[in-house]
Design goal:
Blueprint: E1 2-4, E2 7-9, E3 31-36, H1 44-53, E4 56-61, H2 66-69, E5 83-86, H3 99-107, H4 117-120, H5 140-146
Parallel strand pairs: 3-4, 4-5
Antiparallel strand pairs: 1-2
Length: 148
């Protein structure tokens, strides 16, 4: 096998710059993480380094809010990072509503602490009673996009 312009080839190129002896070892294609939930943007650099070190080049985030993904979106899909795609909003809480999940994420310090339950209520189409009132605060767009 030969590597030329970042691709594997079976034909020998005109010039060989380096020979790597892989006797007794394996060459495998890059791995992919097909189910992940990246909800800690502050840890992105550590996640990225670990994945690349382990040969994982592709990551699928199964559910996340744009607010969270936006915090690391400019650091993925680069030659120095994993290729990343997110389902954006595939989660619900115990009563089929994302409010419980969003408040839990807030308790981990990922969403702003000053947001309250009414901020997560997506105005007119979300069931009343979960937050006690209709909202429309800074988290309205997150709640609207995650509503079942």
């Amino acid at each position: 096998m030969y590597v030329h312009d970042g691709r594997l080839w079976t034909t020998k190129p005109g010039r060989i710059d380096e020979v790597i002896d892989i006797q007794g070892k394996f060459v495998i294609p890059p791995l992919g993480e097909a189910h992940n939930h990246w909800v800690e943007p502050k840890l992105f650099d550590a996640y990225n380094a670990e994945y690349l070190r382990d040969g994982v080049f592709y990551v699928r985030d199964m559910a996340n809010a744009p607010y969270i993904v936006d915090q690391f979106r400019d650091r993925v899909n680069l030659p120095t990072s994993v290729d990343f795609v997110s389902a954006l909003q595939g989660f619900t809480g115990p009563r089929a509503h994302p409010l419980e999940v969003l408040l839990g994420i807030q308790q981990f310090g990922i969403l702003p602490k000053e947001w309250s339950a009414p901020d997560f209520e997506p105005c007119d189409r979300c069931p009343r009673g979960l937050a006690g009132q209709q909202g429309g605060g800074p988290a309205r767009d997150i709640a609207r996009s995650v509503r079942p």
